[in-house]
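Lab notebook, bench 4. Continuing the backlog of folding jobs that were queued last week. Each job is logged with the same field layout so the records can be merged later without manual cleanup. Today's entry covers SDR family NAD(P)-dependent oxidoreductase, a 299-residue chain. Filled in by technician R.K.

JOB TYPE: sequence-to-structure
TARGET: SDR family NAD(P)-dependent oxidoreductase
LENGTH: 299
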Amino acid sequence: MTQLAGRTAFVTGGANGVGLGLARALLAEGCKVAIADVREDSIEAALKLLENQHVMGVPLDVASRESFAQAADRLEAELGPVSLLFNNAGVNLFQTIDDSSYDDWDWLLGVNLHGVINGVTTFVPRMKERGLGGHVCNTASMAAFLCNGAPGIYNTTKFAVRGLSESLRYSLAAHGIGVSMLCPGLVKSQIYASDAIRPEALKAGAKEVNTEFVSNLEKLHEAGMEPEVIAARTLEAIQENRFYIFSHPEFKDELAEVFDEVLADFREYPEDPGLADRLQIEAGRRASYKKAREAANAL
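JOB STATUS: finished
OUTPUT FIELD FOLLOWS
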């Protein structure tokens, strides 16, 4: 996709951080933009900053399928058909999996994974039916590749977004719709304050917020990459139809180390009785996978 001007874009988590940076960049490219966020006061503040007649705000809990459908109808009636979808909303919880509750899981899965699923399921059928092409960009994270004990649930959701996005890229190539996955590192954003927007219905299993820890996180995020820089690199990658958008080049060496460790765990085993038949089956799967990658890359 080389032409962005004139298209309508929908950006979740669009009132601050990467989402707001994307909105600015898209408007500069001549797009009409709808920014969605769960915080209505943040939407109002963002709209004042953007000051553009081709932008609108949409209050939205991305975990709600019904709200997503209503938001889609409303914004498309005002701005036209969406052909640029940015599933960007995300929250974080800085604790380990073994120290987490069902409410913790439901909260992060609802926003970070189901929010992407809801965006795709709401808008992609419309994009396919209209036949105008377009692009879907799902925000994952370097946490889709790099893990630690904490934040365990966050890692889980981002690994899932990675698998969803790659599979979606291959299925949508035939419809002229590209798919990318944004994997930022440290960003100047408010994700450190995720606890402030946790739904009341999912607080029963929550641990008491460590305000000192949150304060330290805020200082770390002040050193994060500017959202406008990430947005510029994202739109460049979309126009080049790249799948992986690695906005933070400082992770390249570490990712190479991890991939080397993965490959090092393969072993040369004695040939087992079913190997010959499996190799034939896998040769077909491998050829199909390569064909899918080539088709998606050729958009």
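OBSERVATION: The chain is about 50% helix and 10% strand.
SIGNED: R.K.
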